[in-house]
Amino acid sequence: xxxxxxLGVTALAxxxxxxxxxxxxxxxxxxxxxxxxxxxxxVEAVAKLDRNSKxxxxxxxxxxxxTYHPQGMTRVGDRLFLxxxxxxxxxxxxxxxxxxxxxxxxxxxxxxxxxxLKGRLLEDITLGEGDMYHPGGIDTDGRSVWVPVAxxxxxxxxxxxxxxxxxLKVTEEFRVDDHVGGVVPEPRTGKVHGVSxxxxxxxxxxxxxxxxxxxxxxxxxxxxxxxAYADSRKMLCTGITGFKNASGADFELGGIATIDxxxxxxxxxxxxxxxxxxxxxxxxxxxxxxxxRGEGLRMWAAPDDGASPAGTELLVYETxxxx
Length: 323
Hints:
CATH class: Mainly Beta
Mean pLDDT: 90
Helix content: under 10%
Structural class: mainly beta
């Protein structure tokens, strides 16, 4: 097992001691909170979205550190957690499958960055082991951030870590014989949900990693890149599908979905067409959705890689129902 912490661990832990309790009720309510049987405000806000919803870019925060290829994002109090993969040697496709794999493992390093709400880097936690260096979509149960780190190829293997938000202690929870591209802890039941490569398979495990449920994704709208728990046993997922138009040019379609965790049924889906400085759709990788007080939705997104011309920018959008 490999994990390394850098920067001010003691100072950060002390700061988080004062913010963990506040994480259940920040100015905007995160999708990972606890609540009643009715739908969480963030689920209700997503349910009101349609293709005509008007989004306003309210803040653009350049990240002034090496971000590599960001993957997932979650929030606890006044801290943001951002997972990212640093690719040292890209995987290479084989002409024919080798030992059941369609490509080489490549080499890289997995990162979990801790940021303040202005995007300033507070901590860099290195996660992974051997060929498992690709962190995916992440989520929090309020006490820990859950991070899958997988091989950078389908039908492979992954390890699921839990990172204490106060001490930043890293604990390996379990391993999975598949590429796990995102995990979502369910505080109410102790279950952990996840998605495979391209989110074509949806999983549920217990805390020991025993598989409870496996189901083929009913939606072919987008591949989920980042998911988060919402009260009333729902999961909010965001993602992307790449297309080519008639001239062969690339086009990215983004989307948001609400999923019932008891059945994996899709309750609501809506496209997203918001574009970053680098020309990527906003839901390409890390996304955090929060309900605004009153009505409306806030979306934090980091679609661009560190190698993009403008680097990675943290984009903050808001939308409110039409009056």
